[in-house]
Amino acid sequence: MHAKESIHSNCGVVGIYGHKDASQLTYLCLFALQHRGQESAGIVSSDGKNFNHLKKRGLVSDIFSDPNTFNKLPGYIAIGHNRYSTTGGDIEANVQPLVMNLKEGPIAISHNGNLVDSSILRAELMDRGSIFQTTTDNEILIHLIARSKKESFSEKVKEAVTKVKGAYTLVIANRNELTAVRDPKGFRPLCIGRKEGAYIFASESCALDLINAKYIRDVKPGEMIVVNEDGFHSEMIFPEEKKAYCIFEYIYFSRPDSKIFGDNVDKTRRRLGKNLATEKPAEGDIVISVPDSSNTAALGYARTSDIKFEIGLIRNHYIGRTFIHPIQKQRDFSVRIKFNPVEGVIKDKRVILIEDSIVRGTTLKKLVNLIKNAGAKEIHVRISSPPIISPCYYGMDFPTKSELIANNKSVEEIRMHMKVDSLEYLTQDGLLKSVENGDNHYCTACFTGEYPVEIKESFSKGQYEED
Amino acid sequence: MHAKESIHSNCGVVGIYGHKDASQLTYLCLFALQHRGQESAGIVSSDGKNFNHLKKRGLVSDIFSDPNTFNKLPGYIAIGHNRYSTTGGDIEANVQPLVMNLKEGPIAISHNGNLVDSSILRAELMDRGSIFQTTTDNEILIHLIARSKKESFSEKVKEAVTKVKGAYTLVIANRNELTAVRDPKGFRPLCIGRKEGAYIFASESCALDLINAKYIRDVKPGEMIVVNEDGFHSEMIFPEEKKAYCIFEYIYFSRPDSKIFGDNVDKTRRRLGKNLATEKPAEGDIVISVPDSSNTAALGYARTSDIKFEIGLIRNHYIGRTFIHPIQKQRDFSVRIKFNPVEGVIKDKRVILIEDSIVRGTTLKKLVNLIKNAGAKEIHVRISSPPIISPCYYGMDFPTKSELIANNKSVEEIRMHMKVDSLEYLTQDGLLKSVENGDNHYCTACFTGEYPVEIKESFSKGQYEED
Amino acid sequence: MHAKESIHSNCGVVGIYGHKDASQLTYLCLFALQHRGQESAGIVSSDGKNFNHLKKRGLVSDIFSDPNTFNKLPGYIAIGHNRYSTTGGDIEANVQPLVMNLKEGPIAISHNGNLVDSSILRAELMDRGSIFQTTTDNEILIHLIARSKKESFSEKVKEAVTKVKGAYTLVIANRNELTAVRDPKGFRPLCIGRKEGAYIFASESCALDLINAKYIRDVKPGEMIVVNEDGFHSEMIFPEEKKAYCIFEYIYFSRPDSKIFGDNVDKTRRRLGKNLATEKPAEGDIVISVPDSSNTAALGYARTSDIKFEIGLIRNHYIGRTFIHPIQKQRDFSVRIKFNPVEGVIKDKRVILIEDSIVRGTTLKKLVNLIKNAGAKEIHVRISSPPIISPCYYGMDFPTKSELIANNKSVEEIRMHMKVDSLEYLTQDGLLKSVENGDNHYCTACFTGEYPVEIKESFSKGQYEED
Amino acid sequence: MHAKESIHSNCGVVGIYGHKDASQLTYLCLFALQHRGQESAGIVSSDGKNFNHLKKRGLVSDIFSDPNTFNKLPGYIAIGHNRYSTTGGDIEANVQPLVMNLKEGPIAISHNGNLVDSSILRAELMDRGSIFQTTTDNEILIHLIARSKKESFSEKVKEAVTKVKGAYTLVIANRNELTAVRDPKGFRPLCIGRKEGAYIFASESCALDLINAKYIRDVKPGEMIVVNEDGFHSEMIFPEEKKAYCIFEYIYFSRPDSKIFGDNVDKTRRRLGKNLATEKPAEGDIVISVPDSSNTAALGYARTSDIKFEIGLIRNHYIGRTFIHPIQKQRDFSVRIKFNPVEGVIKDKRVILIEDSIVRGTTLKKLVNLIKNAGAKEIHVRISSPPIISPCYYGMDFPTKSELIANNKSVEEIRMHMKVDSLEYLTQDGLLKSVENGDNHYCTACFTGEYPVEIKESFSKGQYEED
Question: What is the ipTM metric for this complex?
Answer without folding.
Answer: 0.87
